[in-house]
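# step 3/5: fold
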Amino acid sequence: MRDVVIFGTGPIAELADLYLREDARRTVAGFAVDSAFLQSNTFLGRPSVAFESLEQQFPPEAYDLFVAVSYTGLNKLRRARVDAAQARGYSLAHYVSSRATLFSTFVADENQFILEDNTIQPFAQIGRNVTLWSGNHIGHHSRIAEDCFIASHVVISGGVSIGPRSFVGVNVTIRDHVTIGADCVIGAGALVLADVPDGSVMAPGGTEISRVPSHRLRRI
């Protein structure tokens, strides 16, 4: 496998570096950020370069890229950097923990970040650029579309569909065969018993959809 460059120098990038090196046994050669955020030419003892000039030190013919960014802007920032990297010829790495429970029907996709203790049941589909933090249950025949972020200890029951760019908070429970639309924010501890339209917000611990649409939230 080729060496990897990680986009990002924050906590998620630091975690991705450790997971890729210690579990996936991949070599992380360096890091990249947008030039406006480049504060040092090193991070974790390795080169840190401007994303705009990444090819000069880490050409796409020799390195894969992994975008280690959170759910900022309902995952749109992470998706934008994935698209930009691919447009410049980079292949996207992925990380799936060796401590996740998987079956033969699981197929890893580009820029997935799937941490330890996730159980992904047979025939579940996980999209490109999805983050599954630790300790989730992904039920059989469920589908998580691209660019989603699923926090820890989420129960996604069988046959659930989650639309692109959605965020699902810690300890959420989603009933079987529920459909959650695109660009939704499901707050921590929410119980989802019925379909959720595109752009909806469900308050933490709630069962009702908020009147405030997701595009008006200030901190996500």
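# step 4/5: annotate
Residues 94-209 form a domain with the UDP N-Acetylglucosamine Acyltransferase; domain 1 fold (CATH 2.160.10.10).
# step 5/5: archive (pending)
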